[in-house]
Design a protein that fits this description.
Blueprint (H helix, E strand, L loop, with lengths): L6 E7 L9 H8 L5 H9 L3 E3 L2 E2 L11 E7 L16 E4 L3 E6 L16 H8 L23 E7 L2 H12 L4 E9 L6 E5 L1 E4 L7 E4 L7 E9 L3 E8 L6 H8 L22 H13 L5 E9 L6 E5 L4 H10 L2
Parallel strand pairs: 7-14
Antiparallel strand pairs: 1-4, 2-3, 2-4, 5-6, 6-7, 8-13, 8-14, 9-12, 10-11, 12-13, 14-15
Helix pairs in contact: 1-2
């Protein structure tokens, strides 16, 4: 019998120019599907080395640090386990559930994240979920990024799943996001129409393509402006992976706090010492991209009426807005 892999090693080199930030925050951005809580547990267990030395959670990374992370791997369970994880349910009937997903929660079990997901929480909440997908994704019709908060619809049966999936495929779903972005927009409203393709240099990222890739269309409208940032309302005509994040980054207005697409650097105002210090403090408040899936609308699979669901902004974005308004 082949030996079972019981741990996985990751090596992270802190880039030149990296500002000081806590190592748990830094690794949450660098390691796919990693949560801050899990990184903290690894640190407490002595499984994170910086330049061959064990460090604590409050260690702040420096340029050129070599970070080595050892992640114990538990065997993948044969079935997803129900877990008593609190859910913010906006609406539920016998056909579907609309959930307000918290930032940091992965939608469904995958490599190195077999527990603590939305699916694990849903299985504890109900025994009735669509089996259209493979076993790891019961009920999941669509996803939003781990560190994006907001609304998701989950199907309870196969008929509902198919009906909702067709609407997503036809781009007839109403999907409104709110985001805080760097800089002031040139116009109060507009559109970004650029093809998206997976990056050749980093398969976890997407980039703009002039000729290839999939069409992607995002509409934006300015809600509020600050010194060097704006609050935008965004509507998706298409629903590509990372669409909003890549589109906004491509026009030099990355989402505030976005570690993947340029939102954690000082994009505007870095030449002013007071503004630089202020934004560095604000970035510490927002360790994720300031993006929230606020509104979700679609045709009900049974009544055939259009239903719309809305949610308040999460507390971290509310706190960031409060500071920006000062």
């Amino acid at each position: 019998m082949a030996n079972l892999i019981t741990e996985k090693m990751f090596r992270v080199e802190v880039p030149e120019g990296q500002k000081k930030e806590r190592i748990d925050v830094h690794l949450t951005h660098k390691l796919e599907n990693a949560t801050r809580n899990r990184i903290q547990k690894l640190l407490d267990s002595g499984l994170v080395l910086v330049n061959n030395k064990v460090v604590k959670q409050n260690y702040k990374v420096n340029p050129f640090d070599i970070i080595e992370v050892t992640i114990p791997i538990s065997p993948r369970p044969e079935d997803n386990e129900p877990e008593n994880i609190p859910l913010n349910i906006v609406f539920e009937d016998e056909y579907f559930i609309v959930v307000n997903k918290a930032a940091g929660m992965v939608a469904h079990p995958a490599y190195a994240n077999y527990t603590g997901t939305l699916v694990n929480a849903l299985l504890h909440h109900t025994s009735k979920l669509s089996e259209t997908n493979e076993l790891s994704r019961p009920g999941i019709v669509h996803r939003i990024d781990k560190d994006t908060s907001g609304l998701l619809v989950v199907a309870k049966d196969e008929v509902t799943h198919a009906f909702l999936a067709k609407q997503f495929a036809a781009h007839s779903i109403e999907r409104e996001y709110w985001a805080i972005v760097w800089g002031l927009m040139k116009t109060s409203k507009g559109e970004i129409n650029k093809n998206l393709i997976r990056s050749n240099t980093d398969r976890k990222k997407f980039t703009i393509s002039e000729k290839d890739g999939k069409t992607a269309l995002t509409y934006f409208e300015v809600i509020e402006e600050f010194d060097f940032a704006s609050l935008l309302k965004l509507n998706l005509k298409t629903g590509r992976t990372h669409q909003i994040r890549v589109h906004l980054s491509s026009i030099n207005h990355p989402i505030f706090g976005d570690p993947t697409y340029g939102g954690r650097g000082l994009v505007y105002g870095s030449q002013l010492p007071k503004m630089k210090n202020r934004f560095e403090n604000l970035l510490q408040m927002m360790p994720r991209q300031a993006l929230h899936a606020k509104t979700l609308g679609f045709v009900h699979p049974i009544t055939k009426e259009f239903v719309r669901f809305d949610t308040e902004l999460p507390q971290d974005i509310i706190a960031l807005l409060s500071e920006l308004r000062k």
